[in-house]
Amino acid sequence: AICCIPRRHAAYRGGCVQGKGTMGSALHEFESAVLLSFDQTAPAHLRDVALSSLEALKLSSDSISFCLQALGITGEACVKFWCLQVLVDVVRQSRYSTLAEGEQAALRASLMGWAQTKGAPQTDEAPYVKNKFAQLLVALLKVDFPHKWPHFFEQLLGTLQNGPVAIDFFLRLLTSVHEEVVSSDGSGFDASVAARIKDGMRDRCLPQVADAWLSILQLHESAPELAVACLHTIHLYVPWIDINLVAPPHPPRRFLELFVAFLHEPQLHENSCLCLTELVGKRMDASAKLEHLDSLAVVRLLANVAASGVALSAPFAALVAAVSLELLDCWERLALRAPPSADGSNLSASASSSLRAAMPLLLTCLSSPLLEVSQCTMNFLHAYVGRLRKLAPSRDELSAHEEHLQQLLVGMARKSVHPADYCFEAEDEAEEAFTAYRREVATLFKGVARVHGSLAQLFVRSTLETTLDAIESAPWAHVEVALWLLFQLGEGLPDAAIRDKEGVFPLMMTRLLSSSASAHPHQAVQLLYFEIIVRYYRFFLAQPQYLHTALSSFLDGRGLRNQRLAVRSRICYLLLRFVKLTLKAAPPQFVDAVSSLSLALSLSPSDEPFPLEEPHLANERAAAAPSGAACSGERANGPALSGSPEALPLSAAEQLNLFEVCGLVLGAPLAQPRHVAELLEVLLTPPLDRLQRLCEVGLSPPTAHERQHRRAAHPHAAGGLRARAASDSSDEVFFAA
Q1: What is the dihedral of CA 626, 632, 635, 638, to 10 degrees?
Q2: What angle do the packed helices 342-366 and 314-335 form, to 10 degrees?
Q3: Cα–Cα distance between 638 and 564 in angstroms, integer?
Q4: Cα–Cα distance between 183 and 189 in angstroms, integer?
């Protein structure tokens, strides 16, 4: 079954180990075939011959013995890999089960013998060879452990004294056991096999394995890479082994001491965090878990580590969040345990106290300048805020957490400030990550507002007033985040809080309306101002005396006459929404707005083509647009209009929105019919004149320029306005128009 590679192709063999006699010759040709099969640049006909002969070798009756011999002789890593893969296939494809008991035992002994030759650095193998060997041993374990190979782990543990290569093999084997057997993430997971192997390890070798881990960790100065691998392996096993093996209830706690010490070592820090995270997350009854966490004193230990100057990393923040979440879970389970008891109440109070002790460090992680560090706290914070209403239903109980809620509000506000160079129009990957993070912060902020509405209102009011008082000198991002907090606050408050004339919310709205935020030079601030006006339309329904102030900001240089295209386009849509929502409380002065709108609508269409999207699609896009659309620096406020904004025409979607605004206002009973008729005439005359001119073109096919102007005339918009006004006005007004 061994192929005969022509001697002229010897260059493909590379170096090979020459044996004696028949095996040496066969090995020579075998190595050449394997090397050729991996060489994508080799002539196709030679590779086909090599692959065909190797496939025949796999199917031959002596393939197992041949691969075992070649494994021990060859010096080519890819040849060893090929041999190991053949043996893996033999075990997995049930061919192994057809072998006699003696043949199976010989195979196991040969593999263990090969492993025992590894120890000193010069005996090391390529990583992919070591991984494949571990995969082969695990495949055998799934079949033979513990009934046919009961002393496997004892034999493997006996090789550790051989040197660092043996230790590396050992750790890779344990990791492979997790990946191939224990973890349910793999497609080949078998619960019965996993239970059998885990039970066999518990009965026979886990204490010895834990002792080996401890010995390997103590090599962290001379062999830090082995300590890193060992930590990674330990964190995989902690969830299902006896917790006392790595975290006994009483000193000495040698593992814990090493884990905490390794937090100060950059190379070991991440995997130490993983081990500690698994230690605190070990599944237990609530009272046992609380006792476990108290015995570890993990809150105090982590606070001391942070105070010592260790840089906050994402793994460390995830560890702090895991500790906090476990304490929160203990508090909830103990507080809601039925039937209630004095002992349960005491334990619940203890869990709540420990959680409050963990909060300062958690909030420090939230405030980290690194987004990935802050992000690690979010899952806990969502759970914390979501469960507070249930766990602290009374004001007195909630007051114990008020300080941390206040700090949480401050942290969220600071983390929501845009970077100074943020570009809204062309976000890069980092800016997209910030936007996603800010959305999550918004959800969390609204949760705090629901739990403690008065605290959230006072915080937003303080932030808003402080910022607006210094609006001329404050960075645009600080002004924007103050308005953003007000914008988000409404979803966390009941409608009654917004309509209450004596409450805090109306004070914030009146302060905003009296400020210069609507005229801020940065369009992100301007747009957010108008978004707030529309979102809190109920404030204007309750206090209609402010409607004129709001409407004026829409119509002047801050809104429709704004120099910024993005602002003007968005304002046309927001004005329509605002008028629809507040029309029932509108004063007669709303009719005066039609005069301003008719001036803008009377301008001749631009010579530049309009966007090809239909007006209703442009409207939907405007509804989904973000509140800011600008880049900082020279591009900070997006493209500006060249020339006076009063002399430039509106786009198709903008005209459609404004015509509908006029129809709504004129259709409402806000003015005398004759005055409405006069305004309709002024409003409809320009588009009707343009329509008349288009009709005079005749039936000849329109040119591209004519098609553009037909679109621009918007007779359907004017007609819709007329129908809108006529539906709510008298016949006199309709026919006068």
Answers
A1: 20
A2: 160
A3: 7
A4: 7
- The contacts of residue 148 (CB under 8 Å, 6+ apart) are 104
Confidence of residue 185 (pLDDT cuts 50, 70, 90): confident
Helix (H, G, I), strand (E, B) or coil at 393: coil
Average pLDDT over residues 497-526: 91
Distance CA 258, CA 220 (A): 10
Helices 77-92 and 63-73 meet at what angle, rounded to 10? 150
How many helices and strands (H and E) does the chain possess? Answer: 37, 0
Cis preceding-peptide flag for 673 (omega within 30 of 0): no
d(CA 643, CA 606): 13
- Enter the DSSP assignment of 715: H
Q: Smallest Cα–Cα separation from 733: which of 678, 683, 688?
A: 678
The model's pTM: 0.84
Q: Which residue has the higher pLDDT, 295 or 7?
A: 295
Tens-place pLDDT, residues 372-417: 999 999 999 999 999 998 888 888 889 999 999 999 999 999 999 9
Q: Which residues are CB-neighbours of 656 under 8 A, at least 6 positions away?
A: 615, 619, 714, 717
Q: Which DSSP symbol is given to 589?
A: G
The amino acid at residue 268 is L
Three-state DSSP at 676 gives helix
**Cβ burial, residue 196 (10 Å; 0-12/13-18/19+):** middle
- Cis peptide bond upstream of 419, omega within 30: no
Sign of the Cα pseudo-torsion (305, 307, 311, 316, in order): positive
Question: How many other C-beta atoms lie within 10 A of the C-beta of residue 521?
Answer: 10
Q: Angle at CA 395, nearest 5°, toward 389 and 396?
A: 115
Q: Which of 422, 436, 524 is nearest to 481 (CA)?
A: 524
Higher pLDDT, 7 or 278: 278
Decide: 380 and 324 in contact? Cβ < 8 Å: yes
Token duo for residue 531? 């978004």
Burial per residue of 58-90, b for 16 or more beta-carbon CB atoms within 10 angstroms, e otherwise:
eeeeebbebbbbbbebbebebbbbbbbebbbeb
Helix %, strand %, coil % for the chain, to 5?
75, 0, 25
Per-residue pLDDT tens digits for 128-138: 999 999 999 99
User: pLDDT over 90 for what percent of the chain?
Assistant: 68
Q: Identify each DSSP E strand in 18-58 by its residue range.
A: none
Yes or no: say if 573 and 622 are a contact pair by the CB < 8 Å rule.
yes
On the question of pLDDT at 111 being above 70, the answer is: yes
Instruction: Give the integer Cα–Cα distance in Å for 507 and 84.
Output: 76
- Per-chain mean pLDDT for the chain: 86
Distance CA 47, CA 111 (A): 30
Q: What is the dihedral of CA 549, 555, 558, 562, to 10 degrees?
A: 180
Q: How far is CA 711 from CA 198, 480, 615, 714, in A?
A: 74, 38, 10, 6
534: Cβ–Cβ under 8 A, 6 or more apart, which residues? 574, 577, 578, 581
Gap between the Cα atoms of 408 and 606, Å rounded: 51
Burial pattern 612-647, b for ≥16 Cβ within 10 A else e, equals eeebeebbeebeeeebbbbbbeeebbbeeeeeebee
- Residue closest to 144 by CA, chosen among 183, 99, 176: 99
Helix (H/G/I), strand (E/B), else coil: 32: helix
Burial of 558 (0-12, 13-18, 19+ CB in 10 A): buried
State mean pLDDT over 263-267. Answer: 96
- Partnered with residue 640 across adjacent β-strands are 564
If you count them, how many residues does the chain have?
Answer: 737
